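User: Could you write out the 3D structure of this protein bound to adenosine-5'-diphosphate? I've included everything you need below.
Assistant: Certainly. Input first, then the structure.
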Amino acid sequence: MFKKILIANRGEIALRIHRACREMGIHTVAVHSVADEHAMHVRLADEAICIGPAPAAKSYLNIPAILSAAEITGADAIHPGYGFLSENEGFARIVADHGITFIGPTADHIHTMGDKIEAKRTVKKLGIPVVPGSEGSIDSMEEAYRVGEEIGFPVIVKASLGGGGRGMKVAQTKEDLEEAMSTAKSEAMAAFGDDVVYLEKFLSKPRHIEVQILADSHGNVIHLGERDCSLQRRHQKVLEEAPSPTLDEEARNKIGEIVRTAIASMGYLGAGTIEFLYENGEFYFIEMNTRLQVEHPVTEMVTGIDIVREQIRIAMGMPLEVTQDDIKLRGHAIECRINAEDPQTFIPMPGTVRDYHAPGGLDVRVDSALYAGYSIPPNYDSLIAKLIVHGRNRHDCLLRLRRALEEFVIDGVPTTIPLHVKLIENEDFKAGNYDIHWLTKFLEDQAAQTSE
Ligand code: ADP
Protein backbone atom coordinates (compact mmCIF):
# COMPACT_ATOMS: atom_id res chain seq x y z
CA MET A 1 0.00 0.00 0.00
CA PHE A 2 1.27 3.46 -0.84
CA LYS A 3 1.86 5.80 2.07
CA LYS A 4 3.14 8.71 0.01
CA ILE A 5 2.72 9.76 -3.61
CA LEU A 6 4.76 12.40 -5.40
CA ILE A 7 2.68 14.35 -7.90
CA ALA A 8 4.89 15.30 -10.86
CA ASN A 9 2.66 18.05 -12.18
CA ARG A 10 1.11 21.43 -11.41
CA GLY A 11 -2.14 23.37 -11.66
CA GLU A 12 -5.60 21.87 -11.54
CA ILE A 13 -4.46 18.31 -12.27
CA ALA A 14 -1.97 18.30 -9.38
CA LEU A 15 -4.85 19.31 -7.11
CA ARG A 16 -7.13 16.68 -8.62
CA ILE A 17 -4.59 13.96 -7.83
CA HIS A 18 -3.91 15.37 -4.37
CA ARG A 19 -7.64 15.16 -3.58
CA ALA A 20 -7.84 11.48 -4.56
CA CYS A 21 -4.76 10.72 -2.42
CA ARG A 22 -6.20 12.56 0.57
CA GLU A 23 -9.43 10.60 0.39
CA MET A 24 -7.40 7.38 0.32
CA GLY A 25 -5.31 8.41 3.35
CA ILE A 26 -2.15 8.79 1.24
CA HIS A 27 0.28 11.64 1.90
CA THR A 28 1.28 13.85 -1.01
CA VAL A 29 4.51 15.47 -2.15
CA ALA A 30 4.21 18.44 -4.48
CA VAL A 31 7.06 19.42 -6.76
CA HIS A 32 7.20 22.93 -8.15
CA SER A 33 9.24 25.41 -10.13
CA VAL A 34 10.44 28.71 -8.71
CA ALA A 35 7.53 30.38 -10.53
CA ASP A 36 5.04 28.15 -8.70
CA GLU A 37 6.20 28.81 -5.16
CA HIS A 38 2.79 30.22 -4.23
CA ALA A 39 0.73 27.82 -6.31
CA MET A 40 -2.27 26.06 -4.78
CA HIS A 41 -0.85 22.57 -5.36
CA VAL A 42 2.15 23.55 -3.23
CA ARG A 43 -0.06 24.98 -0.51
CA LEU A 44 -2.27 21.91 -0.21
CA ALA A 45 0.31 19.11 -0.39
CA ASP A 46 1.76 17.59 2.77
CA GLU A 47 5.28 18.33 1.55
CA ALA A 48 6.66 20.44 -1.28
CA ILE A 49 10.00 20.48 -3.04
CA CYS A 50 11.33 23.05 -5.48
CA ILE A 51 12.74 21.25 -8.53
CA GLY A 52 14.08 24.10 -10.63
CA PRO A 53 13.55 27.40 -12.41
CA ALA A 54 10.38 28.47 -14.23
CA PRO A 55 10.92 26.91 -17.69
CA ALA A 56 9.29 23.45 -17.74
CA ALA A 57 12.40 21.92 -19.33
CA LYS A 58 14.31 22.79 -16.16
CA SER A 59 11.61 21.84 -13.63
CA TYR A 60 8.51 19.79 -14.51
CA LEU A 61 10.50 17.92 -17.17
CA ASN A 62 13.65 17.64 -15.06
CA ILE A 63 13.81 13.89 -14.43
CA PRO A 64 16.87 13.86 -12.09
CA ALA A 65 15.34 16.61 -9.92
CA ILE A 66 11.98 14.83 -9.70
CA LEU A 67 13.63 11.50 -8.86
CA SER A 68 15.73 13.15 -6.16
CA ALA A 69 12.59 14.73 -4.70
CA ALA A 70 10.96 11.30 -4.59
CA GLU A 71 14.01 9.73 -2.94
CA ILE A 72 14.45 12.51 -0.37
CA THR A 73 10.80 12.41 0.67
CA GLY A 74 10.54 8.62 0.54
CA ALA A 75 7.65 8.59 -1.93
CA ASP A 76 6.35 5.11 -2.85
CA ALA A 77 4.92 6.18 -6.19
CA ILE A 78 4.81 9.01 -8.73
CA HIS A 79 1.66 10.19 -10.47
CA PRO A 80 2.58 12.11 -13.65
CA GLY A 81 -0.87 13.65 -14.37
CA TYR A 82 -1.22 14.66 -18.04
CA GLY A 83 1.28 16.48 -20.26
CA PHE A 84 4.86 16.93 -19.00
CA LEU A 85 6.34 13.44 -18.30
CA SER A 86 3.09 11.48 -18.41
CA GLU A 87 3.85 9.78 -21.73
CA ASN A 88 7.62 9.67 -21.44
CA GLU A 89 8.64 6.00 -21.53
CA GLY A 90 12.16 6.80 -20.30
CA PHE A 91 10.70 8.42 -17.21
CA ALA A 92 8.37 5.47 -16.53
CA ARG A 93 11.35 3.12 -16.85
CA ILE A 94 13.76 5.07 -14.65
CA VAL A 95 11.13 5.56 -11.94
CA ALA A 96 10.59 1.79 -11.84
CA ASP A 97 14.37 1.20 -11.84
CA HIS A 98 14.56 3.29 -8.66
CA GLY A 99 12.07 1.02 -6.92
CA ILE A 100 9.31 3.61 -7.15
CA THR A 101 5.95 2.82 -8.75
CA PHE A 102 5.02 4.80 -11.84
CA ILE A 103 1.24 5.31 -11.73
CA GLY A 104 0.48 4.45 -15.32
CA PRO A 105 1.05 1.71 -17.87
CA THR A 106 4.38 -0.04 -18.52
CA ALA A 107 7.14 1.80 -20.40
CA ASP A 108 6.64 -0.69 -23.27
CA HIS A 109 2.99 0.21 -23.70
CA ILE A 110 3.82 3.93 -23.53
CA HIS A 111 6.41 3.32 -26.24
CA THR A 112 4.08 1.43 -28.57
CA MET A 113 1.20 3.89 -28.26
CA GLY A 114 3.46 6.97 -28.33
CA ASP A 115 4.45 6.11 -31.88
CA LYS A 116 1.23 6.59 -33.84
CA ILE A 117 2.30 4.38 -36.75
CA GLU A 118 3.15 1.56 -34.37
CA ALA A 119 -0.05 2.19 -32.39
CA LYS A 120 -2.22 1.95 -35.50
CA ARG A 121 -0.48 -1.24 -36.59
CA THR A 122 -0.91 -2.78 -33.13
CA VAL A 123 -4.59 -1.99 -32.64
CA LYS A 124 -5.48 -2.94 -36.21
CA LYS A 125 -4.13 -6.44 -35.54
CA LEU A 126 -6.34 -6.59 -32.45
CA GLY A 127 -9.50 -5.87 -34.42
CA ILE A 128 -9.89 -2.12 -33.90
CA PRO A 129 -10.90 -0.27 -37.10
CA VAL A 130 -8.41 2.43 -38.18
CA VAL A 131 -8.54 5.44 -40.55
CA PRO A 132 -7.56 4.26 -44.06
CA GLY A 133 -4.03 5.38 -44.86
CA SER A 134 -0.42 4.37 -45.36
CA GLU A 135 0.70 1.10 -43.76
CA GLY A 136 3.72 2.77 -42.22
CA SER A 137 5.83 5.88 -42.65
CA ILE A 138 5.95 7.81 -45.92
CA ASP A 139 9.55 8.17 -46.98
CA SER A 140 9.34 9.71 -50.44
CA MET A 141 7.05 11.91 -52.51
CA GLU A 142 6.46 9.00 -54.94
CA GLU A 143 5.10 6.97 -52.07
CA ALA A 144 3.02 9.89 -50.84
CA TYR A 145 1.42 10.32 -54.29
CA ARG A 146 0.80 6.59 -54.61
CA VAL A 147 -0.94 6.34 -51.22
CA GLY A 148 -2.80 9.61 -51.85
CA GLU A 149 -4.21 8.25 -55.12
CA GLU A 150 -5.07 4.98 -53.45
CA ILE A 151 -7.07 6.39 -50.52
CA GLY A 152 -8.31 9.46 -52.40
CA PHE A 153 -7.94 13.17 -51.62
CA PRO A 154 -8.22 15.07 -49.32
CA VAL A 155 -5.55 13.45 -47.16
CA ILE A 156 -3.87 14.46 -43.91
CA VAL A 157 -0.12 14.19 -43.28
CA LYS A 158 0.52 13.35 -39.62
CA ALA A 159 3.66 13.15 -37.49
CA SER A 160 4.21 9.70 -36.03
CA LEU A 161 5.32 11.21 -32.71
CA GLY A 162 2.67 13.95 -32.91
CA GLY A 163 0.66 15.33 -30.04
CA GLY A 164 -1.27 18.44 -29.04
CA GLY A 165 -2.53 18.89 -32.58
CA ARG A 166 0.95 19.67 -33.95
CA GLY A 167 2.65 18.22 -37.01
CA MET A 168 -0.57 17.75 -39.00
CA LYS A 169 -1.27 19.16 -42.45
CA VAL A 170 -4.17 18.62 -44.83
CA ALA A 171 -3.70 18.28 -48.59
CA GLN A 172 -7.00 18.94 -50.36
CA THR A 173 -5.63 17.81 -53.73
CA LYS A 174 -2.60 16.10 -55.21
CA GLU A 175 -1.15 19.53 -55.97
CA ASP A 176 -1.08 20.44 -52.24
CA LEU A 177 0.65 17.25 -51.16
CA GLU A 178 4.27 18.27 -51.54
CA GLU A 179 3.82 21.40 -49.47
CA ALA A 180 1.75 19.58 -46.83
CA MET A 181 4.47 16.95 -46.52
CA SER A 182 7.28 19.44 -46.08
CA THR A 183 5.37 21.65 -43.61
CA ALA A 184 4.25 18.67 -41.52
CA LYS A 185 7.80 17.29 -41.52
CA SER A 186 9.45 20.53 -40.45
CA GLU A 187 6.78 21.16 -37.79
CA ALA A 188 7.30 17.62 -36.50
CA MET A 189 11.06 18.02 -36.44
CA ALA A 190 10.80 21.30 -34.51
CA ALA A 191 8.23 19.98 -32.01
CA PHE A 192 9.24 16.35 -31.55
CA GLY A 193 12.81 16.12 -32.88
CA ASP A 194 11.71 13.53 -35.44
CA ASP A 195 10.18 14.03 -38.88
CA VAL A 196 8.62 10.64 -39.56
CA VAL A 197 5.16 11.17 -41.04
CA TYR A 198 2.31 9.03 -42.36
CA LEU A 199 -0.78 9.62 -44.48
CA GLU A 200 -4.42 9.25 -43.61
CA LYS A 201 -7.67 9.89 -45.39
CA PHE A 202 -8.91 13.30 -44.23
CA LEU A 203 -12.44 12.73 -43.00
CA SER A 204 -14.74 15.59 -43.97
CA LYS A 205 -17.27 15.64 -41.14
CA PRO A 206 -16.36 13.23 -38.36
CA ARG A 207 -16.94 13.55 -34.65
CA HIS A 208 -14.13 12.90 -32.18
CA ILE A 209 -15.33 10.15 -29.87
CA GLU A 210 -13.06 8.49 -27.33
CA VAL A 211 -13.52 5.50 -25.06
CA GLN A 212 -12.18 5.50 -21.49
CA ILE A 213 -10.84 2.21 -20.21
CA LEU A 214 -9.44 0.87 -16.93
CA ALA A 215 -7.36 -2.31 -16.79
CA ASP A 216 -6.00 -3.96 -13.64
CA SER A 217 -3.16 -6.43 -13.13
CA HIS A 218 -5.64 -9.30 -12.61
CA GLY A 219 -6.83 -9.33 -16.22
CA ASN A 220 -9.96 -7.25 -15.64
CA VAL A 221 -10.74 -4.57 -18.21
CA ILE A 222 -13.75 -2.28 -18.20
CA HIS A 223 -14.80 0.63 -20.38
CA LEU A 224 -16.54 3.67 -18.94
CA GLY A 225 -18.39 4.70 -22.07
CA GLU A 226 -17.38 7.52 -24.37
CA ARG A 227 -16.67 11.23 -24.44
CA ASP A 228 -17.49 13.44 -27.39
CA CYS A 229 -14.67 15.93 -27.91
CA SER A 230 -15.62 17.23 -31.33
CA LEU A 231 -15.55 20.89 -30.34
CA GLN A 232 -11.96 21.71 -31.24
CA ARG A 233 -9.91 24.68 -32.30
CA ARG A 234 -6.70 23.87 -34.17
CA HIS A 235 -7.16 20.19 -33.30
CA GLN A 236 -7.34 21.06 -29.60
CA LYS A 237 -10.36 20.30 -27.45
CA VAL A 238 -12.44 23.18 -26.08
CA LEU A 239 -15.55 21.50 -24.64
CA GLU A 240 -16.26 17.83 -23.99
CA GLU A 241 -19.37 15.86 -23.14
CA ALA A 242 -20.46 12.42 -22.02
CA PRO A 243 -22.29 10.57 -23.36
CA SER A 244 -21.98 11.62 -27.01
CA PRO A 245 -25.24 13.13 -28.29
CA THR A 246 -24.85 11.04 -31.41
CA LEU A 247 -24.28 7.47 -30.15
CA ASP A 248 -27.01 5.06 -29.20
CA GLU A 249 -26.71 2.24 -26.68
CA GLU A 250 -25.99 -0.32 -29.37
CA ALA A 251 -23.12 1.64 -30.98
CA ARG A 252 -21.69 2.41 -27.54
CA ASN A 253 -21.69 -1.21 -26.45
CA LYS A 254 -20.30 -2.38 -29.75
CA ILE A 255 -17.24 -0.10 -29.74
CA GLY A 256 -16.82 -0.54 -25.99
CA GLU A 257 -16.58 -4.31 -26.39
CA ILE A 258 -14.17 -4.08 -29.34
CA VAL A 259 -11.91 -1.83 -27.28
CA ARG A 260 -12.19 -3.97 -24.15
CA THR A 261 -11.17 -7.12 -25.98
CA ALA A 262 -8.21 -5.42 -27.67
CA ILE A 263 -6.94 -3.85 -24.44
CA ALA A 264 -7.25 -7.13 -22.58
CA SER A 265 -5.21 -8.99 -25.20
CA MET A 266 -2.52 -6.30 -25.06
CA GLY A 267 -2.13 -6.89 -21.33
CA TYR A 268 -2.44 -3.15 -20.79
CA LEU A 269 -2.37 -1.76 -17.25
CA GLY A 270 -4.03 1.35 -15.83
CA ALA A 271 -6.23 4.04 -17.33
CA GLY A 272 -6.21 4.76 -21.03
CA THR A 273 -8.22 6.41 -23.76
CA ILE A 274 -8.74 5.12 -27.25
CA GLU A 275 -9.55 7.98 -29.60
CA PHE A 276 -11.69 7.58 -32.71
CA LEU A 277 -13.11 9.64 -35.48
CA TYR A 278 -16.75 8.68 -36.05
CA GLU A 279 -18.42 9.26 -39.40
CA ASN A 280 -21.49 7.73 -41.06
CA GLY A 281 -21.88 5.24 -38.25
CA GLU A 282 -18.29 3.96 -38.49
CA PHE A 283 -15.46 4.27 -35.97
CA TYR A 284 -11.87 4.91 -37.08
CA PHE A 285 -9.04 4.72 -34.52
CA ILE A 286 -6.66 7.71 -34.51
CA GLU A 287 -4.60 7.25 -31.35
CA MET A 288 -4.41 5.96 -27.80
CA ASN A 289 -3.49 8.12 -24.82
CA THR A 290 -1.78 6.12 -22.09
CA ARG A 291 -2.55 8.55 -19.28
CA LEU A 292 -5.22 10.50 -17.44
CA GLN A 293 -6.93 13.01 -19.73
CA VAL A 294 -7.94 16.61 -19.15
CA GLU A 295 -11.57 15.72 -19.84
CA HIS A 296 -11.77 12.66 -17.54
CA PRO A 297 -14.23 14.39 -15.14
CA VAL A 298 -17.18 14.13 -17.54
CA THR A 299 -16.82 10.36 -17.40
CA GLU A 300 -16.59 10.49 -13.60
CA MET A 301 -19.80 12.53 -13.46
CA VAL A 302 -21.82 10.03 -15.50
CA THR A 303 -20.34 6.83 -14.03
CA GLY A 304 -19.61 7.83 -10.43
CA ILE A 305 -16.16 6.23 -10.78
CA ASP A 306 -13.15 8.17 -9.45
CA ILE A 307 -10.65 7.49 -12.25
CA VAL A 308 -7.61 8.76 -10.31
CA ARG A 309 -8.48 6.58 -7.32
CA GLU A 310 -8.75 3.61 -9.68
CA GLN A 311 -5.35 4.45 -11.24
CA ILE A 312 -3.78 4.43 -7.79
CA ARG A 313 -5.49 1.19 -6.74
CA ILE A 314 -4.41 -0.50 -9.97
CA ALA A 315 -0.82 0.67 -9.41
CA MET A 316 -0.97 -0.90 -5.92
CA GLY A 317 -1.90 -4.22 -7.57
CA MET A 318 -5.49 -4.18 -6.39
CA PRO A 319 -8.33 -5.50 -8.56
CA LEU A 320 -10.99 -3.19 -10.02
CA GLU A 321 -13.86 -2.76 -7.59
CA VAL A 322 -16.51 -2.87 -10.28
CA THR A 323 -17.31 -5.08 -13.26
CA GLN A 324 -18.59 -3.99 -16.66
CA ASP A 325 -22.15 -4.83 -15.60
CA ASP A 326 -21.88 -2.39 -12.70
CA ILE A 327 -21.21 0.52 -15.03
CA LYS A 328 -24.46 2.37 -15.67
CA LEU A 329 -24.31 5.76 -17.33
CA ARG A 330 -26.34 8.30 -15.43
CA GLY A 331 -27.52 11.56 -17.04
CA HIS A 332 -25.27 13.90 -18.97
CA ALA A 333 -22.09 15.86 -18.23
CA ILE A 334 -20.29 18.70 -20.03
CA GLU A 335 -16.87 20.19 -19.37
CA CYS A 336 -15.83 23.68 -20.45
CA ARG A 337 -12.10 24.33 -20.60
CA ILE A 338 -11.50 27.82 -19.30
CA ASN A 339 -8.27 29.40 -20.47
CA ALA A 340 -6.60 32.69 -19.59
CA GLU A 341 -6.76 33.83 -23.19
CA ASP A 342 -8.22 36.56 -25.25
CA PRO A 343 -11.60 35.06 -26.26
CA GLN A 344 -11.26 36.47 -29.79
CA THR A 345 -7.62 35.91 -30.65
CA PHE A 346 -6.90 33.04 -28.21
CA ILE A 347 -3.57 34.63 -27.32
CA PRO A 348 -2.60 33.51 -23.79
CA MET A 349 -3.04 36.36 -21.31
CA PRO A 350 -1.47 35.43 -18.00
CA GLY A 351 -1.75 37.94 -15.17
CA THR A 352 -2.95 38.39 -11.61
CA VAL A 353 -6.38 37.13 -10.62
CA ARG A 354 -7.91 40.00 -8.64
CA ASP A 355 -11.19 38.42 -7.72
CA TYR A 356 -12.28 34.80 -7.89
CA HIS A 357 -15.60 33.13 -7.26
CA ALA A 358 -16.30 29.58 -8.39
CA PRO A 359 -19.87 28.52 -9.14
CA GLY A 360 -21.45 25.85 -6.94
CA GLY A 361 -24.71 24.07 -6.32
CA LEU A 362 -26.00 20.64 -7.21
CA ASP A 363 -23.93 18.75 -9.78
CA VAL A 364 -21.47 21.58 -10.44
CA ARG A 365 -17.76 20.79 -10.21
CA VAL A 366 -14.85 23.18 -10.67
CA ASP A 367 -11.34 21.79 -11.06
CA SER A 368 -9.00 24.74 -10.72
CA ALA A 369 -5.93 25.87 -8.81
CA LEU A 370 -6.90 29.56 -8.90
CA TYR A 371 -7.45 31.87 -5.94
CA ALA A 372 -7.90 35.61 -5.56
CA GLY A 373 -4.50 37.28 -5.65
CA TYR A 374 -2.84 34.44 -7.58
CA SER A 375 -0.44 35.43 -10.34
CA ILE A 376 -0.70 33.06 -13.30
CA PRO A 377 2.87 32.46 -14.51
CA PRO A 378 3.42 32.93 -18.26
CA ASN A 379 5.49 29.75 -18.54
CA TYR A 380 2.82 27.08 -18.75
CA ASP A 381 -0.42 26.07 -20.44
CA SER A 382 -3.19 28.68 -20.39
CA LEU A 383 -5.81 26.27 -18.96
CA ILE A 384 -6.82 27.79 -15.59
CA ALA A 385 -10.07 26.04 -14.74
CA LYS A 386 -12.42 23.31 -15.83
CA LEU A 387 -16.12 23.70 -15.19
CA ILE A 388 -17.92 20.38 -15.23
CA VAL A 389 -21.68 20.22 -14.90
CA HIS A 390 -24.02 17.27 -14.65
CA GLY A 391 -27.73 17.05 -15.40
CA ARG A 392 -30.41 14.35 -15.58
CA ASN A 393 -30.27 14.75 -19.35
CA ARG A 394 -28.46 16.96 -21.87
CA HIS A 395 -31.16 19.62 -21.78
CA ASP A 396 -30.99 20.01 -17.98
CA CYS A 397 -27.21 19.89 -18.12
CA LEU A 398 -27.15 22.83 -20.55
CA LEU A 399 -29.49 24.90 -18.35
CA ARG A 400 -27.28 24.26 -15.34
CA LEU A 401 -24.10 24.96 -17.33
CA ARG A 402 -25.42 28.33 -18.41
CA ARG A 403 -26.26 29.24 -14.84
CA ALA A 404 -22.83 28.11 -13.62
CA LEU A 405 -20.97 30.03 -16.35
CA GLU A 406 -22.89 33.16 -15.35
CA GLU A 407 -21.86 32.71 -11.72
CA PHE A 408 -18.18 32.21 -12.48
CA VAL A 409 -16.04 35.24 -11.59
CA ILE A 410 -12.39 35.32 -12.69
CA ASP A 411 -11.38 38.94 -12.58
CA GLY A 412 -8.06 40.37 -13.72
CA VAL A 413 -7.37 38.20 -16.76
CA PRO A 414 -9.45 37.66 -19.91
CA THR A 415 -10.91 34.15 -20.11
CA THR A 416 -12.78 31.95 -22.56
CA ILE A 417 -15.95 32.01 -20.38
CA PRO A 418 -17.76 34.40 -22.79
CA LEU A 419 -16.99 32.04 -25.66
CA HIS A 420 -18.56 29.11 -23.80
CA VAL A 421 -21.70 31.16 -23.07
CA LYS A 422 -22.09 31.89 -26.80
CA LEU A 423 -21.35 28.32 -27.74
CA ILE A 424 -23.99 26.73 -25.59
CA GLU A 425 -26.62 29.19 -26.81
CA ASN A 426 -26.07 28.15 -30.40
CA GLU A 427 -28.93 26.15 -31.93
CA ASP A 428 -26.67 23.59 -33.66
CA PHE A 429 -24.83 22.98 -30.43
CA LYS A 430 -28.06 22.69 -28.46
CA ALA A 431 -29.27 20.10 -30.95
CA GLY A 432 -25.98 18.19 -30.68
CA ASN A 433 -25.36 18.81 -34.38
CA TYR A 434 -21.66 19.40 -34.74
CA ASP A 435 -18.49 17.76 -36.04
CA ILE A 436 -14.77 18.44 -35.56
CA HIS A 437 -14.80 21.30 -38.08
CA TRP A 438 -17.87 23.03 -36.63
CA LEU A 439 -16.13 25.25 -34.06
CA THR A 440 -13.69 26.71 -36.61
CA LYS A 441 -16.64 27.76 -38.75
CA PHE A 442 -18.49 29.11 -35.69
CA LEU A 443 -15.47 31.22 -34.71
CA GLU A 444 -15.08 32.56 -38.25
CA ASP A 445 -18.76 33.59 -38.26
CA GLN A 446 -18.32 35.29 -34.87
CA ALA A 447 -15.25 37.19 -36.08
CA ALA A 448 -17.12 38.30 -39.23
CA GLN A 449 -20.02 39.56 -37.09
CA THR A 450 -17.78 41.60 -34.78
CA SER A 451 -15.92 43.21 -37.68
CA GLU A 452 -19.17 44.25 -39.40
P1 ADP B 1 -2.86 14.74 -31.45
O1 ADP B 1 -2.13 13.58 -30.87
O2 ADP B 1 -1.94 15.82 -31.93
O3 ADP B 1 -3.97 15.24 -30.59
P2 ADP B 1 -4.76 13.18 -33.09
O4 ADP B 1 -4.34 12.11 -34.01
O5 ADP B 1 -5.38 12.77 -31.80
O6 ADP B 1 -3.52 14.19 -32.81
O7 ADP B 1 -5.76 14.16 -33.82
C1 ADP B 1 -6.23 15.34 -33.22
C2 ADP B 1 -7.40 15.89 -34.00
O8 ADP B 1 -7.02 16.15 -35.38
C3 ADP B 1 -8.59 14.95 -34.12
O9 ADP B 1 -9.43 14.99 -33.00
C4 ADP B 1 -9.26 15.50 -35.37
O10 ADP B 1 -9.96 16.68 -35.07
C5 ADP B 1 -8.09 15.87 -36.25
N1 ADP B 1 -7.75 14.73 -37.15
C6 ADP B 1 -6.79 13.79 -36.93
N2 ADP B 1 -6.79 12.86 -37.92
C7 ADP B 1 -7.76 13.22 -38.80
C8 ADP B 1 -8.29 12.67 -40.03
N3 ADP B 1 -7.78 11.54 -40.56
N4 ADP B 1 -9.31 13.31 -40.65
C9 ADP B 1 -9.83 14.46 -40.13
N5 ADP B 1 -9.38 15.02 -38.97
C10 ADP B 1 -8.37 14.42 -38.32
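Residues 131, 156, 162-165, 200-203, 206, 208, 232, 235, 275, 277, 286-287, 436 surround adenosine-5'-diphosphate (CB under 6 Å).
User: Perfect, thank you.
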